[in-house]
Amino acid sequence: MRELASASLLRKARARPDLVRQVVNRARTGGVRSTLAAVRSRLDEDMPLGYSAAGVVVSAGAATDGIRPGMRVATASVGHAEYQAVPGLLAVPVPEAVSDQAAAFGAVAAIALQGLRQAEVGLGGSVAVVGLGLVGQLTVRLALASGLNVIGIDLREWTAELVRGGGAVGLVEAGAATTEQIMELTRGRGVDAVLITAATPSSEPVARSAEIARDRARLVVVGDVGLELDRRRFYERELDLRFARSYGPGRYDRAYEEWGIDYPIGHVRWTARRNIEAYLDLVASGRVAVDDLVTHVFDVERATSAYEVLASDPRSLAVQLSYSAPAQPSRRTITIRPRRSSTSPRAGLIGAGNYAKATFLPALKAAGWVDDLAAITSAKGLSARHAAERNGIALVVPTVDDLLVRDDIDVVFILSRHDSHARMVVRALDAGKHVFVEKPLALTQDELDEVTAAYDRNSGHLFVGFNRRHAPMTAHAKQVLEAASGPLTIAYRINAGTLPESHWYHDRRQGGRVRGEVCHFIDLASWLVGEQPRVVHAYGSGRGEPGLEEDVSVLLGYPDGSTATITYCTRGHRRTPKERLEILGRGHTVVIDDFRRLEIDGRDVKRVPAGKGHHELLAHVRGVIAGNAPDDLDLQASFGTTRAALSAIAALAGIQEHSSRLPTQADAETSVSAGFNS
Fold it and tell me: To which H or E segment does residue 599 belong?
């Protein structure tokens, strides 16, 4: 990670060609300018380093079984920091006999232990460990504690000597001579397993491992090595090539790491947490010692020196950072620059993710908010501080509560994950703020009822991030269509593309893509018709959890006879533009092609600018708060869109086909306050 973080742009591109392809595809469909802004935002981010640590619990959530304040724990997957927010299953209690220094090895040792488990070598078997850096040294010691005959191989004499001191055989790689020594040590058979813990782009460590392994042995890749291999070597001995994935089962599994759902021990004996536990128990019993592996210790204030040592000292092995933190977490507000006085409404931001930095903050500035961004907070304080420094935001505050109690904040922009939107809207309205929330407004009817009740009992304005209705091409098309009367027929096709399994949209708590994205397109269709849908039909592909399907068609019926068909697909070709909107009726045919081209009655309209309406929406928000524009029409449309999206979810969750009748315009006042169950 350290090498990638400090690499040049060219080296990063060579290391991750898959991401380069994503950038190229996005530029083809979304435009070069927006893609460049997004890439610059990502490259400009600070990258947290470190993933293995130990500390004292300050507070623990109710679902963290066996963890309590004051307890020492070993932690995994969280970067270096004075305070860490650690998933419950990745915070492991430390036995009294284990030093803080040894406990800090927990995650790294679990990587080594998972490699050994993949090797499946029983008591008395023989293993070779190729690469004797920190993970290799830990692998050797854990293998010795497991009753195995261990041979360590490295290019350096001092690391080979280190494993000899622990009771293993230490060899300096010398090609055929090394192979001969290993054959002699194993009675001419070769080792039962080879654990490859080296870090090099070369494929030589894996190729050499095939030469020292016995027939049908296992080769386990733990480190980051090249894999351009000669099939013949592996075929002739029928070698089993395996890969160890970090700490063990549970790693990279959102349910395990984020939701705290453990695997039943009867089905998965050794999870990531249990591997860390096993390491700590071995240290507590005296069967594994690691303190001597620490070659350098630095106070966190000298962290830069620590990384310089790793880069320059050839005998650096384990370099630890130490902290002397106060007894309670700091709730200090960080001042980035002196706050400037202004008679304009002062804004606070909640959330500092990729969308906030690459799209929303530039749009805020374009809409005239540049001098009025007063404070920001985020779940990860580092991202908020980074956004503040890059955008001239005066203050970084620790929590949402700290932001909402500030008297100098008039309007709150909510850009957090979807499952927090409704809750934060209610809190912000009740705190006396004007509120802008990114779509979706709510994920359930109950949430929508709570939002409407909070809006009714407070005097603050409420805005939802349905920006497409404010796009210049939308405004021009609506003006043309409103010159006549009659129903419209709307066909809206969205080539959404697939998302990686690790994307947070796949977290069912976030509501899925219909609630989170299809609502955008429902909103625009209704805005163009000028009414809210009375009937919603929805059909899904049947792939995925009911209600969370990603390939759907939604049919909307309106009181005036208009219809809109929204086809949302994730499986189209990546070069196909994302959105195509066709509107027929009232004597016109309008085509909006990805908000970059507008065609009316077969002719391109050149004078209307491109764009999806982000900064136009935020300029509208500013005007409403200043008393220069009404907002009732916008808000009622947002409530109607949310009800329609929830009705589509109900339809998808039904059997085969579902039709929901929504309130008409005559029902609107009652339905906003009382809600509507589809």
Answer: strand 597-600
